[in-house]
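Hi U.,

Before I forget, here's the chain from the pilot set. I'm dumping it here mostly so it's searchable later in email.
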Amino acid sequence: MKLRSSLSSWRGRGREPEFVAFLKRVSTIQINSEIDADAAPTASHPLVSVIIPTFNYGQFIGQTLESVQAQTYQNWECVVVDDDSTDNTPQVVTRYAVGDNRIKYLHQINQRQAAARNHGLQHATGKYVQFLDADDLIEPYKLERQVGYLEQHPEVDIVYSSVRYFSSENIHERLFSMGKDNSPWMPEVSGAGQDILSLLVRANIMAVNSPLVRRSVVDDVGPFDHKLPPLEDWDFWLRCAVKGKRFQHDKTNGTLALVRSHPASSSRNKTRMMRAGVRMRRKLEQRIDDAEIRKLNRELMSEDAWCLGVEEVLHGSVLRGTGGLIEAGIGERRLNHRMKMFVCAFIAPFVSKQRFQVVASSSITSSLTGIWRRSGAE
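Structure:
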């Protein structure tokens, strides 16, 4: 099926925006022949549920919905859950829903993103689930290729694509990361069990819109944890790995997950992400059976608590930061690191933030020497 036919239902709305023209141009993309043959669409066309939580993203969600409508795979439903937006989000989504009955608009009292995804799942009826944030996009072949792959590979639970980043100012941008070096961060691995779990414990391996997931996996693993935003998706993949679900990375062209980088993005809130990371690791501690992976999680939890404690002291609450540093020290097994954490917790309420930052960024020997010199001078 050509991309132009999937655009026909909404072409007549007037002059096509630059974004639509760009999507149409990618229809000339060449699919890797080996993967293409392996992931060719089957005779059956099971329903895909696209779940889009949104809050005050009226300026972006039109492009997000158009990327769904531009899919070469047509048997989908799109459940948009409005988390009590105060901008023009309801009007924008309703306009698209009126023109396309596959798009459903739901409203909820503000409960944040995880609860909105769960609300969407309650109303989803598809065999497969595609998660998509209201400011992000997916490439036109994503659903077709990944549905085809899962249909032909019943042993695989989650198939996921690579990610690229773009800015609102340049939708043609395709960056590997939001870092200054623009280096790829996804390990692009496949597997199940301890191998995948050990990687996921270290770091998230994909963006939330990278995977296509069997609905049966969602039902088995359970809903997103509404207490962990903005890391509820990482927690969800960790629970999938603990349950032994099989992940498959998809290298097929035209299936990329596209993530928008902008100041309002939830991933920009550093302190909130750190807090969620520590909570997530505490929760994970109770689920891991493998001793080595549990040890790794404890070490990383201590490091995360340390980073959060320093961040809180410098930019938030000194009292809360001090508690985090003490928690980090208790969980730390390396003696010199533990000493530094306790030293920083001890001095945090009594020194300037500038002085604290110097101590926190120094070795334990330098830190203690500096403190002794300072106390001697006084």
